[in-house]
Write a structure and sequence with these properties.
Elements: H1 11-16, H2 21-33, H3 35-42, E1 56-59, E2 65-68, E3 73-74, H4 76-80, H5 85-88, E4 92-97, E5 104-108, H6 109-125, E6 133-137, H7 142-154, E7 157-160, H8 167-176, E8 181-185, E9 188-190, E10 193-195, H9 197-210, E11 217-221, E12 235-237, H10 238-244, E13 254-255, E14 259-265, E15 273-278, H11 280-293, E16 301-304, H12 311-323, E17 327-331, H13 342-350, E18 354-357, H14 359-367, H15 371-374, E19 383-387, H16 393-403, E20 410-413, E21 447-450, E22 456-457, E23 461-467, E24 477-478, H17 482-490, E25 497-505, E26 511-516, E27 520-523, E28 526-529, H18 530-538, E29 543-553, E30 557-566, H19 574-587, E31 596-599, H20 613-620, H21 638-644
Parallel strand pairs: 4-17, 6-7, 6-8, 7-14, 8-11, 11-12, 16-17, 16-18, 18-19, 19-20, 30-31
Antiparallel strand pairs: 1-2, 3-13, 4-5, 9-10, 14-15, 15-24, 21-22, 21-23, 23-25, 25-26, 27-28, 29-30
Helix pairs in contact: 2-3, 6-7, 6-10, 8-9, 11-12, 14-16
The structure holds adenosine-5'-monophosphate-propyl ester (PRX).
Adenosine-5'-monophosphate-propyl ester (PRX) binds at residues 265, 311-312, 387-390, 412-417, 438, 499-501, 513, 515-516, 522, 527.
Length: 650
């Protein structure tokens, strides 16, 4: 059995760090005792066209109202670009590293300004106005960052859809927020493989039209110059339009609570929700966490390997780092292409100081062997980060000892699409590290652990994680459905934000996230609702019923395990299995590819017809000896069949 040990803050780290433990404790106390005063001060880290006089106006009860800096006026793109031009106009803002290791580009803040202004003008001249929703479906290329910032510049609300989602999933998101302007590329390139983004977009636009949303324009970046269909009165060529556009565009005056972006994320029930983030508080929180969590110093080269299709890419590739005037690296490829040394070679090539990635990547690279790491220098590295899922202590130690050579603190950052920024995390110069623990709350974050009945648990305990007061980066609503916002997050435990995560607090007050306690699973750091996969399965003609659960997977963290009852008369064959995998990939996208499909003539249900997922989870985990009470099942014999035919036999 692996025994995690505590790693004390290294002297070398403490010496240069922005925050030591005394400062952490002091600031934390101030931030929770008098949040108004604390955030009044730190709100000034961004520039405001009109300063705020009100700081915090938030309530977790009743209608749930969350407003920060509400009478302030600012602009996110101005804060991420214009305000740096005087001091660091010629500094590199974004380093782009292509999928192909011989391809890279560097863009200075001056150049970023011009590109973003031109694109903002392209959008304006095509009728995009403040408050309009713009869908971005793009690979990891510079134009994706320009697109985000150009939206922010004119006050359009972007909704980024990850390139791994299918046309149908894209259509659903276009329709939900009634978005009529799409920015995409001809094709994406990942690990040498082509992703047909424009062709997917064409299908999605057609699908959206059937659902009543008429997409007016599709702006297309030529990434691969592959052949694509072209619709003259709808499609716009990016390069051509940019050439004609004016190189200056004033930033729109945005109220602090004007929306910045929508990002769809999965929950336990129903369709993905449009998480809405607004302007002022979000940027204050993203930039502040970026600075202190990664111990960012001016001049550092910072790399977050996420995709901009996820919240990590929003807050920690684009908005947080650029608001801080950092040099941020954007990587088009994947960790193991052309070889598993790629991450570390990129670190050497660009002299990366701060590197932020996901446990799933760390586990995969660990499996490929140390030689891919030790063949590189990694001398420039100073801080390492982890995000997206619990990191197992073995992977943590490997990251720490092999990648960081015992010299770089690991910040295991816990947060969510909904939280906008990092919530529970070590700070490099302040926090002794325990492998597998996200450690302590960031400034202003008040975690609480409750039991199933909502009873607050004190001391060293295990339970469900809630946050009891607002922080500036918090989501404000579910786009178009405030009721769902209240119901999802504030009704399980009245007056508290419920995270959906299980959590243990140890005797030192450290938090250990144990994973989701709802029907959300985390596959390779990608969040997925089991209900979404179920609804994709039952939409197939041969499927009568389906239940989906997660199970432990060595590389992915969790795998997708599907129980499927075929329609009567349909043969439960391997061909059907393949067909269903293909079907789910079409309905949702490759990221939802089922790992196991078990055909089951019946599912375990209570007499009132509710599927007992607890039993299904145990069988998927191969732990069927501890199924617990099955006597309440309508037909207890189905369990024997499920065990007999389980797909995860060891
Ligand atoms: O279960 C937690 C897990 O990821 C969920 C949030 O997923 P998403 O909204 O896609 O955002 C991911 C990136 C911020 C959480 O509810 N999670 C995230 N970070 C950690 C984590 N679990 C354990 N440790 C983490 N550091």
């Amino acid at each position: 059995m692996f025994e995690p040990k505590t790693h004390k803050v290294l002297k070398s780290v403490k010496k240069r760090a922005l925050i030591d433990n005394e400062t952490y404790l002091d600031w934390y106390q101030q931030s929770t005792k008098n949040p108004e005063k604390f955030w009044k001060k730190h709100g000034k880290r961004i520039d405001w066209f009109k300063p705020y006089t009100k700081v915090k106006n938030t309530s977790f009860t009743g209608d749930v109202l969350i407003k920060w800096y509400e009478d302030g006026v600012t602009n996110v793109s101005y804060n991420c670009i214009d305000r740096h031009l005087k001091k660091r106009g010629d500094q590199v803002a974004i380093i782009w590293e292509g999928d192909n290791p011989y391809e890279d580009k560097k863009v200075t803040y001056n150049e970023l300004y011009e590109q973003v202004c031109r694109l903002a003008n392209v959008m304006k001249s095509n009728g995009v106005k403040k408050g309009d929703r713009v869908t971005i479906y793009m690979p990891m290329i510079l134009e994706a960052a320009y697109a985000m910032l150009a939206c922010a510049r004119i006050g359009a609300i972007h909704s980024i859809v990850f390139g791994g989602f299918s046309p149908d999933a894209l259509a659903g998101r276009i329709v939900d927020c009634n978005s009529t302007f799409i920015i995409t590329a001809d094709e994406g390139l990942r690990g040498g493989r082509v992703v047909p983004l424009k062709a997917n977009t064409d299908k999605a636009v057609e699908h959206a039209a059937r659902d009543g949303v008429e997409v007016r324009n599709v702006l297309v970046v030529r990434r691969t110059h592959g052949k694509v269909d072209w619709y003259e009165d709808r499609d716009i060529d990016y390069d051509e339009a940019m050439r004609l556009a004016k190189p200056k565009c004033p930033p729109a005056k945005m109220k602090a609570e004007d929306p910045l972006f929508i990002l769809y994320t999965s929950g336990s029930t129903g369709k993905p929700k449009g998480v809405l983030h607004t302007t002022g508080g979000y940027l204050v929180y993203a930039s502040m966490t970026h600075e202190y969590v990664f111990d960012y110093h001016p001049g550092d080269i910072y790399w977050c390997s996420a995709d901009i299709g996820w919240v990590t890419g929003h807050s920690y590739i684009v908005y947080g780092p650029l608001a801080n005037g950092a040099t941020t690296l954007m990587f088009e490829g994947v960790p193991n292409y052309p070889t598993p040394a790629r991450f570390w070679e990129v670190c050497d090539k660009h002299q990366v100081n701060i590197f932020y990635t996901a446990p799933t990547a760390i586990r995969a690279l660990m499996g490929a062997g140390d030689s891919h790491v030790t063949s590189t220098s990694r001398k420039s590295l100073r801080t390492l980060g982890s995000v997206g899922e619990p990191i197992n202590p073995e992977a943590w130690e490997w990251y720490y000892n092999i990648v960081g050579e015992g010299k770089c603190p690991i910040v295991d950052t816990w947060w969510q699409t909904e939280t906008g920024g990092i919530m529970i995390t070590p700070l490099p110069g302040a926090t002794d590290l325990k492998p597998g623990s996200a450690t302590r709350p960031f400034f202003g974050v008040r975690p609480q652990i409750v039991d199933g009945e909502g009873e607050v648990l004190e001391g060293a305990v295990d339970g469900n994680l809630c946050i009891v007061d607002s922080w500036p980066g918090q989501m404000r609503t579910v786009y178009g459905d405030h009721e769902r916002f209240i119901l999802t997050y504030f009704s399980t435990y009245k007056g508290k934000y419920f995270t959906g995560d299980g959590c243990r607090r140890d005797e030192d007050g450290y938090y250990w996230i144990t994973g989701r306690v709802d029907d959300v699973i985390n596959v390779s750091g990608h969040r997925m609702g089991t209900a979404e996969v179920e609804s994709a399965l039952v939409s197939h003609d041969s499927v009568s019923e389906a239940a989906v659960v997660g199970y432990p997977h060595d590389l992915k963290g969790q795998g997708i395990y599907c129980y499927v009852t075929p329609m009567s008369g349909v043969e439960a064959s391997d061909d059907l299995r393949k067909e269903l995998v293909k079907h789910v990939r079409e309905e949702i996208g490759p990221i939802a590819t089922p790992d196991k499909i078990q055909f089951a003539p019946g599912l375990p249900k209570t007499r009132s017809g509710k599927i007992m997922r607890r039993i299904l989870r145990k069988i998927a985990e191969n732990e069927f000896s501890s199924l617990g009470d099955t006597s309440t099942l309508a037909d207890p014999t189905v369990v024997d069949d499920l065990i007999e035919n389980r797909q995860n036999k060891k």
